[in-house]
Amino acid sequence: MRRLKKVAIAAALALSTSMATLPAFAETLTFVSWMKGEPGYGDWWNEVIQKFESEHPDVKVEMTKVARSEYADTMFTMFAGGTPPDIVHLAAFEYQSFANEGWLEDLGPYIKKSGMNLDGWAGQSTCEWKGTTNCIMLLYTAYILAYNEKLLKDAGIEAVPTDWNSLLAAAKAATRDTDGDGVTDVYGLGVDSSGGSNMMHDMLHFVLDAGGNWTENGKPAFNSPGVIEGLRRFKEIYTEGLTPKDAAAGDMRQLLVEGRIAMRLDGPWIWNVMKKADPAVRDNLKLAESPLNPPVGGTSNVIGMPSDISDEKKALVWDFIQVATSKDMQQRFATLGSSPAPMPGLDYSAEIAASPYFELFAKANDKASAAGIDRLPKGLELEFNEVTKLVFREVQRMLIDNLSPEEAAANIQTAVERIAG
Amino acid sequence: MIDFSSPKHRSKFGYMLLAPAVILMALIIIYPILLSVDISLQDVRIARVGGTQAPWTTKNYDWLINSEEFWNSIWVTARMVFFVGGTSLVIGLATALLVNQKFKGRALARLFVALPWAVPEVVATVIWAWMLDSSFGVINWLLLKAGFISEAIQFGSNATAAFFAVCFVMIWKGYPLVSIMLLAGLQSIPAEQYQAAKVDGASVWQRFFYVTLPNLAPVIGVTMVMTTLWVFRDFSIIYVLTQGGPIGATTTLSMLTFEQAFSFFRMGQGAAVGVVTMIICAIISRALVGRFAKSVH
């Protein structure tokens, strides 16, 4: 019995000692993001969390990954079920639906109280919704041209395309059946034709270059001459077999690093994808300015907080946002993400020296920003997903029924006007 | 003190034992149904559980009746149920009859028949999506090499090809369950019935039509109900392969529900489609179960 008592006391002591060595967190902030684990941006989030936790030793940030493809549904379910994450990370084209429901806190008073200066903060105007500031913009980016130098040279293209005509000519020359089995092995240009926002962005290159845009003064302009010309170019690339058909943007990136696609217009994130290519292909993969003018650009993702968490948690989340938007973390954003941060006035000389294409990304950003480009159609923010679907449906109808771009544009305009009211 | 062993209170004891299960069923089945009906009667883009209740309206059902997408999805679902259900039944019955015979390697054959059913649906569909890829898929390559086609089939942008591609993957994934259930049904048929039929001089086909099929009818009924409901509610195969396209050629009722509620954030309309789907499923289940149950007697 005495022996049993000793064992019990020893066990209790061991348990209490081990409990004392564990960190006792007074609060946990939940944070859901699709970027967890991503090279570059995921690493930056880790540093932000680390810094915040070092400044708040009694608070733990619990970061969970949700895939981008199911992100909006998951966040929507969490908010609708009354259990939103404490730190809200959303794509710039989807936050409006959440803000419209009053689910996001107005950050205006917090910004004012803390004295945060958002003058010149890239893309911040997108975070204004119905007179309130619902988020802080985390990334504004512009598209560039990724190309396989060897594939272009093999096709007799020595110079990188600089406009639509040279891009089309290069795409035609580079599309080839290399082994003579009757099946195309290399495609000239990777254009998303699988539907979704990436297909809209890919088509927007042609529309912008033709002088159009999806909306004008907040009203649908799908039947404008610029959009019609953009549809004509998309149809030409698709029907002439210059792009793999019905493939998504992710597939295109993979095909590019496998040496199956000669060119692809994409965001700066493609640089991180290209780095993973097989060395034999990687040496031939290069980046250049988009031959289409102005380049597609736009807001990417935002950070905010839910309106119905406790005031104590709101104060902590605001501290987290301040860490993420602090000068040193913005500088780290540029370093780790290999792309310019939204904060103005940062010194990028170290990033330019370290990354061969950083200057290119910054230049593309400036060009798109100066032209006032945002890939999210102004005035159709709430209906963006539905508009995307309608555009996809009518573009498919154009391709399947061989409709003219004018007819397809008129169909899109009618359908969008019906839902936009 | 109630004496539950007395004939007067014996039934109460039964109800008491059933109560936990019934309450649990009500919580996990009936509550979501009521919630869906409630949301379908509200003009809301995004409904929030426990949030402010919008006034009831029939606006979502008005949209449903006048919506081209809804009637298209009814038509697509009906065609898919008919084609997938019918083909799965034929293949399932044929494979069940085959593996019910005694032959060398029967265990291996049974394993192969059941294999597609055991593979996780999303994993299998992603593999098929790559195989059916319009530009680099092995199916197109094989068909081109064999000379069956002169140019690649656009499974993603040809309405007919997309529909049959979805049906094909559904059949591949669904027939093993039919086969397993029918095999269980075949094994429960008394051997005496076949012996008696043989003694009476019945041919193979006569034994099949007058002994096997009548005995299998209840199992076929249950299997058809399960297959029909599976096709009605299946989402992942269509979502991964075609996302309901092209031009709505594979947009079933479940796809439309998801699209309205989670892609377009029109939860009221999505719930209305869901409620109508549930009613249709209930009617079909009742009709099929009733019909096949009667056929046993």
From TrEMBL, chain A:
Signal peptide: 1-26
Lineage: Bacteria, Pseudomonadati, Pseudomonadota, Alphaproteobacteria, Hyphomicrobiales
Record-linked Pfam families: SBP_bac_1 (PF01547)
InterPro entries cross-referenced by the UniProt entry: Bact_solute-bd_prot1, SBP
Keywords: Periplasm, Signal
Subcellular location field: Periplasm
Presence of keyword Signal: yes
Ranges in coiled-coil conformation: none
Native species: Roseibium suaedae
Highest taxon in the source lineage: Bacteria
Any one cellular-component term (Gene Ontology): periplasmic space
Protein name: Carbohydrate ABC transporter substrate-binding protein, CUT1 family
Principal place of residence: periplasm
Family affiliation: Belongs to the bacterial solute-binding protein 1 family.
Keyword Signal: yes
Residue intervals passing through the bilayer: none
TrEMBL record, chain B:
BP-aspect Gene Ontology terms: transmembrane transport
Cited PROSITE patterns: ABC_TM1
Membrane topology annotation: Multi-pass membrane protein
Segments passing through the bilayer: 12-34, 80-99, 111-132, 208-231, 237-258, 270-289
GO CC annotation: plasma membrane
Compartment(s) where it occurs, according to its Swiss-Prot or TrEMBL record: Cell membrane
Domain ABC transmembrane type-1: 74-288
Superkingdom classification of source: Bacteria
Keywords in alphabetical order: Cell membrane, Membrane, Transmembrane, Transmembrane helix, Transport
InterPro entries, sorted: MetI-like (IPR000515), MetI-like_sf (IPR035906)
Statement: the UniProt record of this protein carries the keyword Cell membrane: yes
Entry-linked Pfam families: BPD_transp_1
Family: Belongs to the binding-protein-dependent transport system permease family.
Classification via PANTHER family: BLR7065 PROTEIN, SPERMIDINE_PUTRESCINE TRANSPORT SYSTEM PERMEASE PROTEIN
Name of this protein: Carbohydrate ABC transporter membrane protein 1, CUT1 family
